[in-house]
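Weekend entry, working from home. Most of the wet-lab plans are on hold until the incubator is repaired, so I used the time to fold the two sequences that have been sitting in the queue since the last round of cloning. Logging both here for the record. First:
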Amino acid sequence: MAFNNSKKESSKEPERGKSPDWVIRARQGPNSEFFINCGAAWNIEVNGKDAISLKLTAMPIGSDGSFLLLTPKAD
């Protein structure tokens, strides 16, 4: 799905340095009970609609492409 990112429309990217609203996690392997962090996500607005911006930093070998979005742990 493509978005019109013209400056006329209200679109907001994640603010630089802003803590993520979500942590992206995936199983270490197909039948693993353990999860690893694979990236982060931020709530944003695109063309006046709520959206989520994802930043993937890793992909587990053998992953089926399923991910969980979890709220980050408190520091």
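Second, folded right after the first finished:
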Amino acid sequence: MSLNIRIILSASVVLFIFITLTAAALDRAFVDSTESALRDRLTSQLYALMAAADVTDEGILMPSNELDALLGLPSSGVYAQISSEHGKTLWQSSSVLGARIPQPQMLAPGEKSFARSSTDSNDFYTFAYGVKWATGNKTVPLTFNITTDMVSFDKQISEYRTSLWGWLVAMAMLLLISQAVILRWGLSPLRKVGMELNRIESGKQEKIEQHYPQEIDHLTRNINVLLQHERDQKTRYRIALGDLAHSLKTPLAVMQSGLNSSPDKQDDSLQEQITRMNAIVEYQLQRAATAGSASIGNTVEIRSVIARLLESLHKVYRDKSVIHHITLPDGLVFKGDEGDLMELLGNLLDNAFKWAKQRIEIVAEQQGKKLCLRVIDDGPGIDTGQADNLLQRGVRADRLIAGHGIGLSIVSSIVDAYHGELIIKKSTLGGCEVMVIL
């Protein structure tokens, strides 16, 4: 998962939690505020009703306009009732006609109640106030009830929630888009560094060339230092080993020449040791020449390397008239040192030509991020138990065939340097198949 996606996902989770909690807090605050406003409105209506009421021995007299037009309109949603201490309704507004509302409350004098109730799936708010009404020489306990349905209240809450979530979602989207743009701009130096590293890996440039912000400038400078150090170290290593080769080969050649000109047959053992020393020097030089996966930025076209090797091997083994068949896609490249590829394929193809009866197949293909090379012949093949021994230095399948017995050992060293895998098995042609996965 990319760094950009991780930051976006993390910010989205945090933003979702924040918006949810914010919406819940704002919704709760709005509901409480609306309920408080409803309570104040019902209180005002009840006090106005009490001020307009006239209680006599004959009953309760109320102005014809009933103070509020809604109280005179049947089923208007606002209802008023006055009840006695025994629950008997002494007066009710015209709006009660045809409406099913909760039974009026009976409260003791001075007691107030603001409650929510339901009737036939309809919700109501009721504000009730118990009073002791003085009329003449006596007092009459009464309870004034003002009731309103929740249609208007619920509609107001629903509209607010729709508007709230709409704006919050719009703001969240705007924040996410803004954050994505900011992240893309802020992380652009890292993307540029990645592009430069890809060009270095493909061999199109040798170092990181652009200048970057101070947060990653130290990283890019260290990468350049590391790349230069790797190139310098490999160069010094090869120069030193080249000097070693020249220093050793000259006295060995002189010693061997002197022994060849000497008639003394007792020097055969010394001659054998000098030959072994020559083989060891060649082997160690080949191992030192293996650049391995540390050779950053080099790419070699595989087809051209195979073509050059086959041209030479057909001349060396012209008496065998070996037929070869190549299978590899155009443009396939080896990411590494050309000398490593020449040495690897050279040893494998030389062994194949040496042991093949008539036919050799060369297959190269890309398998994801890995390169697979296969050399197949129709020779006598190699036993499974013998394959591991042949990877050791100096071991040969047939000592009657010329060679030092270090070919497959060098191949194994190169494969190890590239953290690859070497597989030897019986081929479909009846001979040996060597598979190298790098």
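Plan for Monday: verify the second prediction. Residues 393-405 have pLDDT under 50 and may be disordered.
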